[in-house]
Amino acid sequence: MPGNTVKKQATGGRRGGLEQEDSRVLMRLIYVSTGLTIGFFAVLQGVNGNLPLAVLEGAASLLLLGGAHRLAHVRNLTPWIYLYLLPTYSFLIYIIIMPEASVSAFVWVYMIPLMAYLLLGKTAGFIVTVPFAVVAIIAYLIKHPGQLQGAGVIDMGNALLCGLLIMLFVHVYESRRAAAQQLLRELAETDGLTGVANRSSFQRLLDDSIALGERSDECLVLVLLDLDHFKKVNDRWGHEAGDQALRHICACIDARLRKTDMLARLGGEEFAILLRRTDSAQARPLIEALRLQIATTPLCYGEQEIPLSATFGLAEWPVDAKDAEQLYRCADQRLYRGKHLGRNQLIFHDVLPADLLQPHTGLLLSSDHSRE
Ligand SMILES: Nc1nc2c(ncn2[C@@H]2O[C@H](COP(=O)(O)OP(=O)(O)OP(=O)(O)O)[C@@H](O)[C@H]2O)c(=O)[nH]1
């Protein structure tokens, strides 16, 4: 199955745990609720005359509420998650060992794996949970040394077993949830027959790439291609052969693309290739080689060889178009001009009708007329 699918594009550098937007909602909720709670305690400290602590808690409350506001817009949530979890976990351990600590303060430690797995995913959740859980147990034993004798051993055993089971359950749950989410994402973003990106994920990536190009001043190339006389392939060799031809084309194209390029099936026998950080002059030799390869590599179907060819329309952003819609239209018009000119060719320029009469110049279009 082709490698340059949307899978690669979508999973690069992803954090585990909930989806980005779900994590954002949850983190904002956590920041707001913690900020309000600490704010409430700040008021209580003020009323009780403990001014330094009131100021400290008031500042923490304002920081958290400000953070909740910022969280609505930040692109990378991971630092914000660690910024919350690490001090919070340290505080949970502190309430076990602080001078007037209650024996039951230990129960808050059970929140550690729940929050870590939910917000960071299986691997990072495990890595963060284990050291804090170990330190919490050691802190508890130092604070309550009697727990290692008599009935205390049973209490300690219960607490430990409960903690271990919670961690095991969230670990299994998060593994299953992450796998199901990954499968759903792949089903939603890839074409079932060929395994390459589908139209909607391609559209998204094209929009994102143009937005990125605007910021970084980098050009990109969109190539649309359509198999020639594909109906005849289906009619003559059957639908299964047609399906294999579509997979064969994807494999040919995918083998030549870079990791940053993307291939998508837009529907039927129409595909799109997105070449980022590339201009038309750089893209043309690659696409021309692809056209030739498709035209000279028939599909081996059982004992038979099925000849295939495709017509390509190429457009460069921002030279040929200012936005994704215009770019698509431009590439599409060139593709269909290629069809009218006899198929199996690459059109990369808008030309006057008179120019079309001299395709042999190789300047405005390239084609292989031997197959026509
Ligand atoms: N096997 C197979 N065929 C498909 C699939 N999707 C669309 N097709 C067929 O693709 C063919 C497209 O035919 P047309 O739109 O007439 O295009 P064409 O025959 O390639 O002709 P030109 O594009 O003008 O060169 C139709 O016969 C569709 O049934 C698919 O998933 N599998």
Can you tag this structure with a few keywords?
372 residues, alpha+beta, single chain, two-stranded antiparallel ribbon, disordered C terminus, disordered N terminus
Oligomer: single chain
Work out the helix count. 13
> How many independent structural domains?
2
Cα shape:
elongated
**What value does the average pLDDT take?**
88
N-to-C SSE string, H for helix and E for strand: HHHHHHHHEHHEEHEEEHEHE
Whole-angstrom Rg:
30 Å
Strand order of the largest sheet: 2-3-1-6-7-8
Terminal residue distance: 30 Å
Give the helix level as a range of percent. Answer: 55-70%
Which structural category do the helix and sheet elements fall into?
alpha+beta
Percent range for β-strand residues: 5-15%
Give the SSE layout.
Elements (H helix, E strand, L loop, with lengths): L5 H6 L8 H28 L3 H21 L6 H20 L13 H10 L1 H22 L7 H39 L9 H18 L3 E8 L2 H8 L1 H18 L5 E6 L2 E7 L3 H17 L2 E3 L2 E3 L3 E8 L6 H17 L4 E3 L5 H4 L8 E3 L5
Parallel strand pairs: 6-7
Antiparallel strand pairs: 1-3, 1-6, 2-3, 4-5, 7-8
This protein binds guanosine-5'-triphosphate.
Question: Would you kindly provide a brief summary of this structure?
Answer:
Keywords: Membrane, Transmembrane, Transmembrane helix. Helix content is 61%, strand content 11%.
